[in-house]
Amino acid sequence: MRRWVKLRLNRCIPVLVSAVLVLAVLVLAMPRGVYGAQEGTWDRSEDGKYWMYFYSPGEPAEDEWIEDQGKEYYVDSKGRMKTGWVTDKRDKNKYYMGEDGAKCFNMFTPDGHYVGPDGLILESFDTYRKAVKKQLERLMKDKAYKERDGAQRPGFMLWDINGDGYRDVVAVDCAQSPGRVVLTAVWDPREEEMVPAFEADPDGPDQSFLTYNQDSQSVWLTIVKNSGERDFFQMKDNGFQFENIWHFELDYDDWGDAVYYVNGIKYDAQEWEQALSQAGLEAGAAVTEGFLTLDAETVKQAVDCSPEEEMPLWQQ
């Protein structure tokens, strides 16, 4: 009986040894920190200035990421938990660590950057916000509007006027009762810049206003001159400029009789009115709501907001 047990044990020993060796290899190969989770505890450094993560007494984690209770932390080569900006030596990306040391997501950093759902800076979104502010700040410095206050101050809105998903700049000469567009600028994601689509002369006599056709979901710019000329421009989908669709001109012949033109072709008065009505139907209703008063605080509130709905655009 004893000899049989001894034989069984001799046969099991090699199997047990092999299993132990395999398990040891797996344990050694398992990375620590974020990707592997060897548990440890937080404790202060000897001088009390830094938090450190210890796997065992006297064995702090060094130069690695730590995942603890669903948050990510980084300790440097001296084992000190970092705050502020950290550069990951593996992927060379920069991440912002909050005052508690945890990696930050979906927020503005104190120095004005925005970090997305993966913790990375949305570089294009940063560039976009600077470009928008530049356009609006230039308008705020214009002497024609600088002296105004209250309801007479210019207004603005960020509105996707070409249907590409990015919010563009629209500014009017009066926030409370806009009757004249003074600036439109469209974001070009490839060149990462604001492309001016229209800019009016502050002292010019022309009237200009935006309209929106709900059925075609198109944005139009209408310009009316004191001479009687009227132009209807349509912003094409994914375009950067308004395209002139309708041009109405009123002239007089040698006898003082009115002569009507539509897109350079002579029309009689009735045809001219019919074409003008058709152009109005295509252009849609005037946009008179949604404008914010143009001042530094309002611009910051409108521009420096979380791009949740536009996130897929900025992560491309």
- Characterize the overall form: elongated
Question: How much of the sequence is in beta strands?
Answer: 25-35%
Mean pLDDT: 86
Rg over CA atoms, rounded to whole Å, is 33 Å
- Walk across the major sheet and give the strand order: 19-18-17-16-15-14-20
Ranges with pLDDT <50 over ≥5 residues?
1-37
- Distance linking N and C termini: 73 Å
Number of helices, where a helix is a run of at least 4 consecutive DSSP H or I residues: 6
Summarize the biggest pleated sheet. Answer: 7 strands, antiparallel
Task: Give the SSE string.
Answer: HEEEEEEEEEHHEEEEEEEEEEHEEHH
Explain how this protein is built.
The chain has 316 residues and is α+β, with helices and mostly antiparallel strands. The chain has six helices and 21 strands. The protein has helices at 2-29, 123-140, 143-146, 269-283, 296-303, 311-314, and strands at residues 41-44, 51-56, 59-60, 64-68, 71-75, 84-87, 94-97, 107-108, 114-115, 155-159, 168-172, 181-188, 193-199, 207-213, 218-224, 230-235, 242-252, 258-262, 265-267, 285-286, 292-293. Helix 2 (123-140) packs antiparallel against helix 5. It starts with a helix and ends with a helix. Residues 1-37 have low confidence and may be disordered.
